[in-house]
C-alpha cells in the first residue's frame, strides 16, 4: 500500500474520531464548562491520556512494529511460510509479560491516586480540598483505561504490521462515542455528576476498544494465547527499546503534563480547562496528519532499511515531509489567525462564557505556532525507530523538555496560561530541529531538491491564505455567536474560501499537481 493511501486510510478514520472528539468537547463545554468540575476531571484524565498517547501512538508501536516485521522477515528466510506464526509466538511472549505488569501497575496507581494528584496540583490551591478529593476520585475511575488501551496497542501493532491499518485507527472512535453517550444520556444534575459520568465512560470505552481489536485479530487469524511470563531475549530487547522510546515519542505529551501541573498550582481556576480546549483543537491536524503519516511510514521504512534499500527509504522520508507540510501549514495559519472565531463558534454556549473563549483562543494561537514541529516529530522519529535506535530521540526529547520547563517558569508569570502554551510550541521546534540535524549528520536523511522547491511554494500559498483569513475574521466573527445553523454556515464559508485559495495557489505555483497525487495514491510493490 502506498504511503499516501495508507496515511489517508488512517487519517480518514482519525478524522472521524477527531470530529467526534470535538463534538464531545463541545458538549463538555456546554454541560461542564471551564471551572471546578472540568479542571478536576481533566487532571484525572491527563495521566491515563498521557499513557494512551505513549503506547497507542508512540513508544510501544515504535518498538514493537519494527521488531515484529523483522521477526517475520528473518523467519521467512529460514522457514518459508512460517514467518507470521513465529512472529505471533513473539507477540504471545510479549503479552505474557505485559499483562501482569499492567495489572499490578494499574492497581498501584489507583491506590496511590491521592499522592499522584497532589504531586500534579499541589492540592489545588485555588479550589480547596473539595476539588482535590474530586480529582482523586476521578483518577481512580479512569486509570483502568491505561491497562486496557495498552493491550489494544499490542493487538493494533500486529494488525498494522499486517497492513490492516484501519482497524486500529478506528478504535478511538469508540472512546468518543462512549463519552458523547455519557454526556447526552447519563449526565447528572450538576457539573460534578456529569464529570463523574465522563470518568466512567473513559474506562468503559477502553473495554470496548479491547473487544474491537480482539474481534479484528480473530478475523485476521491472529489468536494470542496467554502463557506464563517468560523474559525471552526478544522480549528483553523490546523492553529495552520501549523505555527510551516512551520519553522520545512522548516529549510533547510530557510537556503538556508539565504545563497542566503548573496551571493547576499557580494559575486561576479554569486555566487547566483553557489549555485543554486549546490543545484539543490544536491536536486535530496533528492526529489527522502526523500520526497517520508516521504510523503508515514506519512499517515501510523498516522493510526498506531491512532490505538495504536506503535510496527508497530516503524518498519515503522526503515524500512524507512533503505530504505533512502540504496539510499542516494551512492548518497552522488557520488556527493562529482565526483562533477566536473558531473557539466561539465551536464552544461558546451553555456554561462556556465569552471570557472562556478569549482565554482559550489565546492559548490556541500559541499552541499552533508549534503545530508543524509536532507533526515533523512524528515523521522524523521513525527514521530512528526503523534502525532500532530509540535512545537518540530520548536524549533530544530530554533537551526539549528542559527547554520547556525553563520557558514555563519564565513565561508563566507575564503571560499566564498563554506562556505555558507558547513554551510547549517552542520546545517542540527544538525537538524537531535536533531530530533533523541528527539524522542529517549521520547521513540517514537529506532534504532533496523536490522537497525544497515544494516547501517554498507551500509557504507562499499559506501566507496568501492567512491574509485572506485575516480579512474575513471581522466579517465572520459576529455570526459565530448565533444559532447552530448560522455558526456552521459561517465556519463553512470561511473554511471553503481558505481551501479554495490555498489549494488553488498550490496547484498554480506547481507545489503539487494532480498527477503527483495520483501517483502517490497508486499501490506500489
TrEMBL record:
One GO term describing the cellular component: plasma membrane
Superkingdom of the organism of origin: Bacteria
GO molecular function: lipid-linked peptidoglycan transporter activity
CDD domains for this protein: MATE_MurJ_like
Keywords carried by this UniProt record: Cell inner membrane, Cell membrane, Cell shape, Cell wall biogenesis/degradation, Membrane, Peptidoglycan synthesis, Transmembrane, Transmembrane helix, Transport
Location relative to the cell: Cell inner membrane; Cell membrane
Pfam families membership: MurJ
Transmembrane segments: 94-118, 138-158, 165-186, 198-218, 238-264, 284-302, 323-343, 363-381, 393-413, 419-437, 458-476, 488-515
A biological process term (GO) from this entry: regulation of cell shape
Listed InterPro entries: Lipid_II_flippase_MurJ/MviN, MurJ
Pathways involved: Cell wall biogenesis; peptidoglycan biosynthesis
Membrane topology: Multi-pass membrane protein
Summary of the function given for this chain in its UniProt record: Involved in peptidoglycan biosynthesis. Transports lipid-linked peptidoglycan precursors from the inner to the outer leaflet of the cytoplasmic membrane.
Stored PANTHER family: LIPID II FLIPPASE MURJ
Family named by the database record: Belongs to the MurJ/MviN family.
Protein name listed in UniProt: Probable lipid II flippase MurJ
Natural source organism: Rhizorhabdus histidinilytica
Gene (UniProt): murJ
Amino acid at each position: 500500500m502506498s504511503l499516501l493511501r495508507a496515511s489517508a486510510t488512517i487519517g480518514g478514520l482519525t478524522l472521524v474520531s477527531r470530529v467526534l472528539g470535538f463534538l464531545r468537547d463541545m458538549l463538555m463545554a456546554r454541560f461542564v464548562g471551564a471551572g471546578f468540575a472540568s479542571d478536576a476531571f481533566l487532571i484525572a484524565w491527563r495521566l491515563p491520556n498521557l499513557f494512551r498517547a505513549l503506547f497507542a501512538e508512540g513508544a510501544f508501536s515504535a518498538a514493537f512494529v519494527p521488531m515484529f516485521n523483522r521477526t517475520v522477515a528473518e523467519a521467512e528466510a529460514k522457514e518459508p511460510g512460517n514467518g507470521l506464526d513465529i512472529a505471533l509466538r513473539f507477540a504471545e511472549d510479549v503479552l505474557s509479560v505485559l499483562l501482569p505488569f499492567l495489572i499490578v501497575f494499574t492497581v498501584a496507581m489507583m491506590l496511590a491516586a491521592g499522592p499522584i494528584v497532589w504531586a500534579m496540583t499541589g492540592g489545588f490551591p485555588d479550589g480547596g480540598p473539595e476539588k482535590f478529593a474530586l480529582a482523586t476520585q476521578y483518577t481512580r475511575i479512569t486509570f483502568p483505561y491505561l491497562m486496557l488501551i495498552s493491550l489494544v496497542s499490542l493487538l493494533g501493532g500486529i494488525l498494522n504490521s499486517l497492513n490492516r491499518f484501519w482497524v486500529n485507527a478506528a478504535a478511538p472512535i469508540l472512546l468518543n462515542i462512549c463519552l458523547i453517550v455519557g454526556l447526552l444520556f447519563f449526565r447528572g444534575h450538576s457539573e460534578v455528576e456529569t464529570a463523574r459520568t465522563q470518568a466512567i465512560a473513559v474506562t468503559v470505552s477502553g473495554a470496548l476498544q479491547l473487544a474491537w481489536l480482539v474481534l479484528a485479530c480473530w478475523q485476521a487469524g491472529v489468536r494470542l494465547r496467554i502463557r506464563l511470563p517468560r523474559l525471552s531475549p526478544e522480549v528483553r530487547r523490546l523492553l529495552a527499546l520501549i523505555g527510551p522510546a516512551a520519553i522520545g515519542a512522548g516529549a510533547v505529551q510530557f510537556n503538556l503534563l508539565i504545563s497542566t501541573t503548573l496551571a493547576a498550582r499557580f494559575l486561576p481556576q479554569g486555566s487547566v480547562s483553557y489549555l485543554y480546549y486549546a490543545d484539543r483543537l490544536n491536536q486535530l491536524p496533528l492526529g489527522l496528519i502526523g500520526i497517520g503519516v508516521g504510523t503508515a511510514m514506519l512499517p515501510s521504512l523498516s522493510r526498506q532499511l531491512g532490505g538495504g534499500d536506503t535510496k527508497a527509504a530516503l524518498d519515503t522520508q522526503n515524500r512524507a515531509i512533503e505530504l505533512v507540510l502540504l496539510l499542516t501549514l494551512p492548518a497552522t495559519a488557520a488556527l493562529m489567525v482565526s483562533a477566536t472565531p473558531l473557539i466561539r463558534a465551536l464552544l461558546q454556549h451553555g456554561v462556556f462564557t465569552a471570557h472562556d473563549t478569549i482565554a482559550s483562543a489565546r492559548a490556541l494561537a500559541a499552541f499552533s505556532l508549534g503545530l508543524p514541529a509536532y507533526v515533523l516529530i512524528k515523521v522524523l522519529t521513525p527514521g530512528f525507530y526503523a534502525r532500532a535506535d530509540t535512545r537518540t530521540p530520548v536524549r533530544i526529547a530530554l533537551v526539549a523538555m528542559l527547554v520547556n520547563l525553563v520557558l514555563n517558569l519564565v513565561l508563566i508569570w507575564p503571560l499566564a496560561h498563554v506562556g505555558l502554551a507558547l513554551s510547549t510550541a517552542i520546545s517542540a521546534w527544538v525537538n524537531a530541529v535536533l531530530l533533523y540535524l541528527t539524522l542529517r549528520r549521520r547521513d540517514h536523511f537529506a532534504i532533496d531538491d523536490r522537497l525544497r522547491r515544494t516547501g517554498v511554494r507551500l509557504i507562499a500559498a499559506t501566507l496568501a491564505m492567512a491574509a485572506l483569513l485575516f480579512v474575513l475574521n471581522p466579517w465572520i466573527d459576529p455570526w459565530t455567536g448565533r444559532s447552530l445553523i448560522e455558526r456552521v454556515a459561517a465556519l463553512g464559508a470561511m473554511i471553503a474560501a481558505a481551501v479554495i485559495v490555498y489549494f488553488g495557489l498550490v496547484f498554480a505555483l506547481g507545489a503539487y499537481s494532480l498527477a503527483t497525487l495520483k501517483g502517490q495514491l497508486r499501490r506500489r510493490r
